[in-house]
Design a protein that fits this description.
Layout: H1 3-26, H2 28-43, H3 45-60, H4 67-80, H5 84-100
């Protein structure tokens, strides 16, 4: 990795940290999380993920499953099944937040 790439990564990490801090301080982070949870629940996504977890535990036996194994097995499919509309909606909310708050993104991020 070149020095320039490391600088860009560092700048992006700084911007990400700024955004996260402002989201948390403003309460917007909690509001967005509640919105995501409600949308996933109403779409049936949560029930699908719970069902996958139950099926895996039944197949392997509760004594032979660790949380890490369950997460590793279920997470990729769970992420894939998040409705595209919700992903776009969250991105739009985040961009709107960045636009309305004093967060300098710079040209590299």
């Amino acid at each position: 990795m070149s020095s320039s790439d490391r600088n860009i990564d560092r700048k992006c990490d700084e911007v990400r940290s700024k955004i996260e801090a402002k989201l948390q301080a403003s309460g917007e982070q909690d509001r967005i999380r509640r919105h995501i949870r409600a949308a996933l629940n109403s779409s049936g996504w949560m029930e699908e993920v719970k069902s996958q977890c139950r099926d895996l535990i039944r197949a392997k036996g509760v004594e032979y499953c660790t949380v890490e194994e369950i997460v590793e097995a279920v997470l990729p499919q769970a992420r894939e099944r998040v409705p595209k509309e919700l992903k776009q909606e969250v991105l739009d909310l985040l961009w709107k937040f960045v636009d309305t708050h004093d967060i300098g993104l710079g040209d590299d991020c």
